[in-house]
Amino acid sequence: MAFYELTYIIRPDVPTTTVDAVAAKMADVVKKHKGKVLKSEQWGLRTLAYSIKKHRKGYYTMMGLSLAGAEAVNDLEYALKVSDDVIRFMTVKVDEVSKEPSAILKAKSRMGEADGSDAVAPMMV
Amino acid sequence: MAMEPLPARKKMMGKKGMKGKNGKFARKPREEGPSGPFRGNSKYTPKLLGKAYFQRRRGCPFSGPKAPKIDYKDVRLLGKYLSDYGKILPRHLSGVCAAKQRELAQAIKRARMLALLPYAVKYDASQSTFERAERPSRNRDGAPREPREPREPREPRAE
Known about the structure:
The structure holds two protein chains of two kinds. Chain A is of the alpha+beta class. Chain A has helices spanning 17-32, 70-82, 103-110, 116-124, and strands spanning 2-10, 36-52, 55-67, 86-94.
């Protein structure tokens, strides 16, 4: 078993439920390959550093996974590639999946606007 | 036509003579006077510069017990090692050791892939500021001139 971090960006002009739907879909694929979802983080709607497919913002999701091999990763990436809602994804092999929230979430919670920014940001679009 | 080469020769001769004379007279004092301390300067200046340089230098910010882990998700940390144009800072400016620089570059490239960091930042000549396409709204509340430190408050977008 190896550990992976899967991060993907969902286009912003999609109902908020899609974020959960895609996450559930990913979890299904992981389950199919007898892997485990060790961690799932929603970073919310973030401004992209540059536009991707003419989108300036996107919903970020990061998952810490433990998978058996390349096949599972291929399946995950294929699902993301086929999905129209996902505009960018990246899988990285890591030595371990830390249980702590990642730096981005920490920075968010520091300002105490983890939920607020999600609510405010769509209005700015 | 015949007259022209003659003054030219005279001038040449004169120049040569002047050069020789000036050189002889001028070189001696130069060697004795200013060249003495100049030699000393040329010897000692780099050492003095070197001291100042090395005294200012701290160790690699990523080695040591309290060093932060290099992670592509830590945008604030990685942003410190980008130039205003969004390029990765060279080691001689950041002081990062070779092994960690490789790690850092990899992390920055990953962050760029995920649009967490920009590949390039446009320079707005009319306002002499760097456009952060990454966070236009944040530029308004924070100072756009310093992309490193103010990032922390900018992240959650205070507005």
